[in-house]
């Protein structure tokens, strides 16, 4: 098994690293001090751009480019940290908040200076009680030490961070729903444009970034953007740099969160980091690569990139499990990297049952503003329930495809696509499971075993 340096997670295993004295003994706030006292905002932005860091919240948008969208003459700019972490199967951000909250605080300090903000809101899912407590205590420690407040590090540039617990709705992880919720409104996504960088929190230009994205900023500034970017295992042309947290759960022996460079393979994640399949007599049937909104991959399916100028050509003919995990590489094989937290399913799983389980989640979480999402997700559940009861026909499997196709691309936010794309992938890759379910039903309740059910409902243990 290849071994990789812990960079972002280098304080995770240190006792009480969540307290300021311990974190500081192990390097915390060196970068924030340097950023505020010896770097210009433009220098920081250049390093982040050179780092080629793709957003860690799911969409994979380059952070340096996003920061560049802010208007130059904005009077008030906000930084908002997305710590909602609601994507089923995803449990990486809480590791940072619980084990090393000062890394996030430090990232916020450097980022606020870079983007011209004085205030950060960290929007945390309310169930993450320990994360909230640790963040609040870290912020209080940093304020007391003079790293936040009126003159952070002696500089006349007031900085403040507020923790804002959300109420636990999945849709409030979508950045504009999050902003509405932060403002005390219903957590419903807004039409874009305008994007938050132009009109975000309280009508002001706002950068919304994921916890891990901003927690990476201190390491980027410490090493230099180019050096940090070069940690990736992907060719430079993919512009997908650095190191990231990988999660793995479901039917593996050692589920958890592990740090590695961008570009390890799913095979490495499952068999090295995850310790291999949970039961030796039950092989891998499918893997959801990056949270439940990303389409499932079949281990027997291979990359088809026959042309030499295809960026995926180096992996032509290889199993999807052997493709390096990056934002664009995963897109090229019909799925997404998402949150980079994989859910592993063995041959005991009927994919129609897995799909029904997930569709119930999405239907429950749809905010209801868009007809294709509100009604479509409901129909998917109804049809899957009919299949489950044994009162459907094979034509109903086609109906699932039809409903899914009509949900995509027609809605305010990406929740509908994140429902329909996985539904289509389950059917396309495992049609027989659906036909078997049509023949013999699925029972009243899903028969997913506990390991997978827990993961799909985001209750996986650390
Ligand atoms: C339905 C839905 C749920 C989302 N949930 C989260 C979440 O829990 N955490 C997160 O960081 N991003 C989430 N996102 C993505 C955010 O909208 C946004 O892209 C992200 O916070 C930007 O940060 P990044 O560029 O650093 O990744 C979600 C998106 C959608 C459509
Ligand atoms: S796609 Fe779904 S969740 Fe998103 S705004 Fe429309 S109804 Fe709400």
Features:
462 residues, alpha/beta, Rossmann fold, Ubiquitin-like (UB roll), de novo design (two linked rop proteins), 3 domains, four-stranded parallel beta sheet, four-stranded mixed beta sheet, 10% strand, disordered C terminus, binds flavin mononucleotide, binds iron/sulfur cluster
Task: Give structural notes.
The chain has 462 residues and is of the alpha/beta class. The protein folds into 3 domains: 20-228, NADH-ubiquinone oxidoreductase 51kDa subunit (Rossmann fold); 242-346, Ubiquitin-like (UB roll), CATH 3.10.20; 351-446, de novo design (two linked rop proteins) (Up-down Bundle). It contains 19 helices and 8 strands. It has helices at residues 20-25, 30-38, 41-50, 63-68, 93-99, 101-115, 129-144, 175-182, 211-215, 217-223, 225-229, 266-273, 327-332, 351-365, 371-389, 395-407, 415-429, 431-440, 450-456; strands at 78-83, 119-124, 160-165, 206-210, 243-250, 256-261, 284-288, 341-346. The strands form 2 sheets. It has a 4-stranded parallel beta sheet with strand order 3-2-1-4, sandwiched between helices. A 4-stranded mixed beta sheet has the order 6-5-8-7, with helices on both faces. Strand 5 (243-250) and strand 6 form a beta hairpin. It binds flavin mononucleotide (FMN) and iron/sulfur cluster. Residues 171, 189, 366-370, 373-374, 411-413, 415-416 line the site of iron/sulfur cluster (SF4). Iron/sulfur cluster (SF4) binds at residues 171, 189, 366-370, 373-374, 411-413, 415-416.
């Amino acid at each position: 098994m290849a071994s990789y340096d812990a960079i972002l997670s280098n304080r995770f295993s240190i006792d009480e690293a969540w307290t300021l004295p311990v974190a500081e003994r192990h390097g915390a706030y060196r970068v924030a001090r340097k950023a505020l006292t010896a770097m210009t905002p433009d220098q920081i932005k250049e390093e982040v751009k050179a780092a080629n860091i793709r957003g860690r919240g799911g969409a994979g948008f380059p952070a340096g480019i996003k920061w560049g969208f802010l208007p130059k003459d904005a009077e008030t700019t906000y930084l908002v940290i997305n710590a909602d972490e609601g994507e089923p199967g995803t449990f990486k951000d809480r590791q940072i908040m619980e084990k090393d909250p000062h890394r996030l605080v430090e990232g916020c300090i450097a980022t606020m200076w870079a983007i011209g903000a004085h205030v950060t809101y960290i929007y945390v899912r309310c169930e993450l009680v320990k994360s909230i407590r640790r963040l609040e205590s870290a912020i209080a420690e940093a304020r007391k030490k003079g790293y936040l407040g009126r003159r952070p590090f002696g500089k006349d540039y007031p900085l403040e961070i507020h923790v804002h617990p959300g109420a636990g709705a999945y849709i409030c992880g979508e950045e504009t729903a999050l902003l509405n919720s932060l403002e005390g409104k219903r957590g419903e996504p807004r039409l874009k444009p305008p994007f938050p960088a132009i009109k975000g929190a309280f009508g002001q230009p706002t950068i919304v970034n994921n916890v891990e994205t901003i927690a990476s900023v201190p390491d980027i500034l410490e090493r230099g953007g180019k050096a940090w970017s070069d940690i990736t295992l992907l060719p430079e042309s993919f512009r997908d740099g650095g190191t990231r947290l990988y999660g793995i759960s479901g039917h593996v022996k050692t589920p958890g969160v592990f740090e590695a460079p961008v570009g390890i393979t799913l095979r490495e994640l499952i068999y090295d980091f995850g310790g291999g399949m949970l039961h030796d007599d039950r092989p891998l049937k499918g893997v959801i690569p990056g949270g439940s909104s990303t389409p499932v991959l079949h281990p027997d399916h291979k990359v088809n990139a026959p042309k030499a100028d295809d960026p995926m050509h180096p992996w032509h003919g290889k199993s999807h499990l052997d493709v390096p995990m990056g934002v664009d590489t995963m897109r090229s094989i019909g799925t997404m990297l998402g949150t980079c937290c994989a859910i592993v399913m063995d041959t005991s799983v009927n994919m129609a049952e897995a799909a029904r389980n997930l569709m119930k989640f999405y239907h429950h979480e749809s905010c209801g503003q868009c007809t294709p999402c509100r009604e479509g997700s409901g129909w998917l559940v109804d049809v899957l329930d009919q299949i489950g009861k044994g009162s459907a026909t094979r034509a109903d499997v086609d109906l699932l495809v039809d409903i899914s196709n009509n949900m995509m691309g027609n809605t305010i936010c990406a929740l509908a696509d994140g429902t329909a794309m996985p539904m289509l992938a389950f059917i396309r890759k495992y049609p027989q499971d659906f036909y078997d379910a049509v023949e013999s039903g699925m029972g009243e309740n899903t028969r997913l075993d506990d390991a997978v059910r827990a993961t799909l409902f985001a209750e996986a243990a650390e």
